[in-house]
Design brief:
Radius of gyration: 22 Å
Strand content: 15-25%
Oligomer: single chain
Order of helices and strands: HEHEHHEHEHEHHHHHHHEEHHHEEEEEEE
Number of helices: 16
Largest sheet: 7 strands, mixed
Helix content: 40-55%
Number of strands: 14
Distance between the termini: 25 Å
Shape: globular
Structural class: alpha/beta
Length: 408
């Protein structure tokens, strides 16, 4: 399979020029190792993987000798399997002013991030990687930062092909794991089944001590059925046959694995009676569709859940965009006890940008009806958007625009 250029490359190389060590974390099989090995081509950089049992034992029992044998600059894959290396890496970082000496990959776990952060504070930059975005699959070069103005969105639109419902739902149904991009329906189903058994269940047992593997498999499918909804741990637990407390713990584990993410509600001292419950989304919509037994693109596209999947897809695409971009933002949703909702609020440089997500190609101004609640939030409210299946950018009023989902 031909290498697909990743949007994270720019940020990774930029951080490698400033930090002595850079670690890429993320779910299994999203392309962490492939990207770093690609970037290391032509460099005199050693490569070792802790998936090799002999190398892993060597690294764990003799970390000092290991790093004398495999000297920096070095790429160490799956470093969470040999955490003993961190202390020795710290010593080597402190003995050299060279930047980018250690390139590391690891599964996305809080335990790993804490261990690495504690050992390499001030020396390490941690970057998160997700599965392929729609833009990466198209091969469209990373666009500029999203700017919510009519002029900027129209300029951005010229970089992308027109929105197409079949292409969009192919992206949603197939997802972004690199290894599934050229598989047919039967192969894709077998791949995801193997993905659960080979990676997720093994990690659940080895890294998180889960004994009830059958219950955890069922819980995965229950989470997929609840994707895009407010989290209710008791409901999740009842559906999976476990307690609410276990459901809460297992959601945390799926977050640590990079399988799901929780979109937190917007909080403001000025706005009262806001919900405090997050929403559950999947990082990869293809995996979510497999877990819910949507066996083809067209069945998913025409099914009752298509709107939920489209919303999950748009939010996950924005999550990728901002994770790889230059500007840090807060992503939240709005919901109050009067049932007023805004699908997404992007807070950037203290400015709030409200976003509604609609599968329709022709949204109207009614989609903006809840945006006015932010006028009392005590923050500046900037341009907003209705992200949808429209084939072009159009103004809805002076500050809010129709934005095709294909230009994220």
């Amino acid at each position: 399979m031909q290498y697909i250029k990743r949007d994270l490359e720019r940020k990774f190389l930029h951080m490698s020029s400033a930090f002595k060590a850079v670690m890429v974390v993320g779910a299994r099989q999203v392309g962490k190792s492939t990207m770093l090995k690609h970037l290391a081509e032509g460099q005199n950089r050693a490569y070792v993987t802790m998936d090799d049992s002999q190398l892993r034992d060597f690294a764990r029992t003799e970390p000092k000798l290991f790093l004398q044998t495999y000297e920096p600059p070095i790429l160490i894959d799956e470093i969470q399997k040999a955490p003993e290396l961190f202390e020795e890496i710290k010593i080597l970082c402190d003995n050299s002013d060279e930047r980018g000496q250690f390139w590391l990959t690891g599964s996305q776990s809080k335990k790993l991030v804490k261990k690495a952060g504690d050992s390499l504070a001030g020396r390490l930059c941690i970057l998160k990687m997700y599965s392929l975005s729609a833009r990466e699959k198209l091969g469209v070069e990373s666009a500029d930062e999203l700017e919510f103005s009519l002029k900027a969105l129209i300029a951005r639109q010229k970089t992308f092909p027109a929105n197409n419902i079949l292409v969009t739902f192919e992206n949603i149904w197939r997802g972004g794991l690199p290894d599934v991009q050229e598989k047919d329906e039967e192969q894709l189903g077998e791949y995801f089944n193997s993905y659960i058994e080979t990676y997720l269940m093994r990690d659940a047992v080895d890294d998180y001590g889960i004994a009830d593997t059958e219950g955890f498999r069922k819980f995965l499918r229950v989470c997929a059925a609840f994707a895009g909804q407010l989290v209710n741990y008791n409901d999740l637990g009842v559906s999976a046959g476990v307690s609410g407390a276990t459901a809460k713990e297992w959601v945390k584990i799926l977050q640590s694995m990079g399988i799901v993410f929780l979109l937190e509600p917007y909080a403001s001292n000025e706005l009262k009676r806001l919900t405090k419950t997050p929403k559950l989304y999947f990082c990869d919509t293809g995996f979510c569709a497999y877990l819910s037994s949507w066996t083809t693109r067209d069945v998913l596209m025409n099914g009752a859940a298509s709107g939920h999947y489209y919303e999950n897809y748009v939010i996950a695409e924005l999550l990728r965009h901002y994770a790889y971009g230059k500007n840090k933002v807060n992503l939240n949703f709005y919901r109050d006890n009067k049932m007023k909702e805004i699908d997404l609020i992007i807070e950037e440089n203290g400015v709030l940008h409200p976003v509604e997500i609609k599968k329709t190609a022709v949204p109207d101004k009614s989609a903006l009806k809840a945006f006015s609640v932010l006028e009392d939030a005590g923050r500046e409210v900037g341009g907003g958007a209705v992200i949808c299946m429209s084939d072009r950018v159009l103004p809805l009023n002076e500050n809010n625009f129709i934005m095709p989902s294909g230009i994220i």
